[in-house]
Amino acid sequence: MKMFSVAHKTVFVVDHCPYMAESSRQQVECDVLTKSRAQVIPLAPVSKSLWTCAVECSMEYCRILFDVYPKDKLVNYIVSDSEFHILNTWRREDQSTHELMSALAAVGPPNPREDPECCSILHGLVAAVEALCKITELQHEKRTALMDTAERVANRGRIICLTNAKSNTNVRMLEDCIQETISEQNKLAAGSDRLMAIQQCELVLVHIYPQGEDTLVSDRPKKEISPLLTSEVHSVRAGRHLASKLNILVQQHFDLASTTITNIPMKEEQHANTSANYDVELLHHRDAHMEFFKSGDLHMAGTSTRENGVKETMTLKWCTPRTNSIELHYCTGAYRISPTDVNSRPSSCLTNFLLNGRSVLLEQPRKSGSKVISHMLSSHGGEIFLHVLNSNRSTLEDPPSISEGCGGRVTDYRITDFGEFMRDNRLTPVAESSHDPSGKLPVERAKAQLERYTRYWPMIISQTTIFNMQAVVPLANLIVKEVLTEEDVLTCQKTIYNLVDMERKNDPLPISTVGSRGKGPKRDEQYRIMWNELETLVKTHAGATDRHQRVLDCIVACRSKPPEEEERKKRGRKREEREDRTEKNGSKETEDKSWQESERLKGLLEKDEQESEVIKDSPDSPEPLNKKPRLIPEDIHPPERAKGPATLLSMWTNRITVANSRKHQEFFGRASSVNSKFELYQNLKEENGMDAHENGKASR
Amino acid sequence: MPTVILMDVSLSMTRPVSVDGSEEFQRKNLAVHGLNMLFEHMASNYRLEFTALMAFSSLWELLVPFTRDYNALQEALSNLEDYDKTCLELALQGVSSVVQQEWGSAGPCQVVLVTDGSLGIGKGSLRHSLQTLKHRVEDKKFPLPFPFPTKMFIMCIANAEELQMTDALENLEELLRISGGDGQIFTVDGPLCMKSVQAMFGMLIDRAYSPFHAVLHCGNLSSNVQVFPRPEPVVVDDEVEPIPRAVSTDLEIVGFIEIADISSPPVISRHLVLPIPVNKEVDDVGAGATDELEEEPSASQMAGKSPNFCVLLHGSLKVEGMVALVQLGPEWFGMLYSQADSKKKSNLMMSLFEPGPNPLPWLGKITHLGPVSEAAENPYGEDDSKSPFPVQPQVKRSYAQNVTVWIKASGLQTDVQKILRNARKLPDKTQTFYKELNRLRKAALAFGFWELLKGVAELLERECTMLPDSAHPDAAFQLSHAAHQLKLASSGDSQYAAFDHNIVPMHTDFSS
To answer: Where in this protein does the record put region Disordered (chain A) (predicted)?
Structure first.
């Protein structure tokens, strides 16, 4: 159904003229006497007036409508006698049966003594057309949102008129009047902001007459009066005929279908230990039956056609629920339901069972006699939904397992830590009123939090030291926060002092020795790695606030002091970096850098592990593998260069480069370059008769 | 989305194609060449697609049922035989039944019709089928539109000029329109030859079989992924927003939700999320694919050993029983979760929700989901005993609020009897008695059913006279008080008939 189909706006116009006070002549016995009181004279049966019938059936229509479409299928209720009374507006908060009942009580039943000459349904119908021109909240929102394509927002609506129409001529008169009013109102609407011209109007005229009388108005299927107006006439006896007519109409108007849940076991009122099986009929959007319609299964044993021949119901069998296992079903649709007979005992038993949080699977009988679970009833927040479960073969069956794909062979993922991370990053509904000063939507803030939490997040255990250390947890949890309190800073500092203490005591660190020969790095080297990693983590946050910076300062101040010169150089570098950070604060580049850095550290570590026996600062030790002109352009790692003989990294990178170079043939140009420079297009110059060599020189 | 290849093997497909060179081809050879190219592409880039091969002439035959074995498909292609005339309608009926038997009618399906554009003559021809479209009886309906959503690709082994000489193109366009309009007709550009047919199939591959690559982000963690099957663009309301929405190639995780809280949400489609190596480039169609195969083992082994975010995410989602909410575009979300195929195999799966601000009512407005840390108090409780979900709607549904409906006489009788039952147990049941009485009063007033109020008042007066001697004196007072109040209400006097007014128990004091 389109957002702005005729179903968006429904106007009820109910006749409140004196003749509606007439009795429907359908009597209700409300005094049910037990045998023990047989001597009492029972109360005379009561009978509803035409008005009462019309009101209760229209309320039932609204009840079903609001149950299935709690939003944006709107009702405007108008009562007509010597004038019109509009009982509510299109506004969302006015859309409830309680509101309408309250307003109806204020109107009361029609006054039989009023002058019938002054009274007419026409007042209400004119008001209904005017109401259809009024813009709804949704129309307004969409028009505003669409801006230059605002004309896509259509204005259509339906008028359901419950009246006693007297004759076919009278019906024609009413139609003409509506047609005329529409053209008038459309002219008015053209010049207004709060009004919209009607593009399509459906008139459903229901003529109500008392039981036992002959109707003077004949039924007529939908016909086009004008391009803007269609009209249909239903002539119905008051009482249960009217009720079932409106029930059919609400289904037609809002694309509903009916499902009967069968075999519901229910305790007997009298005999609590026995149970009988009951059926409950539910209404819901007809898409919940899509699969049956398509497969042609609808016309089979499981369905039945009612006496009126219009309504069909699909039968689904109750499956006694298993224990409340939490499962993610593959569900292709979920549709709100409304019980047809809301306060019958079986209905309320079923709905209460569901509202208490249980789910029920439903079984669909099939042509072949085989059975298949096709639906599920479940409540969410006090609303019951009929879920459609996929019962077809999946096109995604037998996919390659995740362990066979990228990263599938790695075994030391930090699964538990990431689980913790996910708990910390769970979502919660945020009130729309709580406005963030940054003007960001809550989802954007959630993404921002994820960004902060992942600035430094090694994925595997062997890639990290600090996240394997219980002692670091308090700091690691706090530093990712957007804002730190003074207390948080203190906690972080304590954590750092604690680490210093550990280092002093020479406590072992959980450094991974995976893949390394021998015992792994020495203790002081381990601490250096740990401090480096911690610094990397904190550095990614230091730019956020002064307090974050203070945590970083604390680390820098506390970590074991390298030789003095190192220290000085480092400070210099740090200052540079800080400036750098303030420049591109929060930008992607900084993060990437920190990532690179962590990767580099990891690289250092591994290199260190593997080569530690070789490089003992001894002059006899073999030369690094590659002392040829460096293949890597100089400007990529200037800080390392500046560090002078601290060549762990350069050795490592060289090693990687050599390893890589074995995998492919080196570019001719790079292989024969001088100082990483090589003259391009030499052949052109040769062809031009110039000496390539000379040219090469000249270019330098 | 499974594919059915519907291959025309009528005699006209054996028409020779004049090529400048020495060798002479039939149209069938060209079609087979094109299809082989498609299968090779799928085998290396789209290998999870299920494909079936059907051949048709005046009859149809399912040569290869749905499979991922592209060798079998290619083999079947090489053994095609030639038959009589083209009868498309029957073949389409065949497609319909083959697809429904395998996949039901809910899932979408792609149909690739390969034909030379000579669509038969007389009865059974497409022209005849389309002409008689409106005069069909119920059980001889034209098979299109199929009950399942269809993408129809019509590959004409003929060029447009050739087709324009007959009404073939118009008929095919009509066919496409009836099928639902989602699809395309391809014709050969220029003279018929291997190259031009290859180009035409290349266009089909680009249109329907190019793998969907995206980057899955979770803050700074990310992974390159292929989403299979390709997520299709979605039109929510063709009137308000006619431009289809497509899934972004940046899939951004927003946060996490427990499986119990998301509770089997309705989804429009499901997709596998397969991590792919970072440097593997999107394959060029055709020729490039074969070269790549040789290097594949070492490349994939390398990729298997370097950590990938998808694997980490999958592992934790599985262990924790959670899903990740992922943003697919503006106001469009989906969820990532671990899906177990059997005990050993499990996978990262993505389901797409309906686009829009409110796809799952029980989560509230989806863009208003924010981090837990923003809440003053942890909504999950310190020990994970609570949950902020489901979000309660502001108004209760009718079945959750004890509404009054008297459409059936039994409804009214039950309500009256309830009052009488409680009336006989006064004063113990005073509260319930008045509660039920007020409920009935409210409904009677709203429905303008004053006669009922009078009737019930009479019933209460009668009960009053029938009280046994042992009854508490308060019972009589309350009954006559209630009866009096109902009568006042039935007068319509605004002082007593106000909807929100409640009859309160008479204040009596028998203690002294």
So the answer is: 562-646
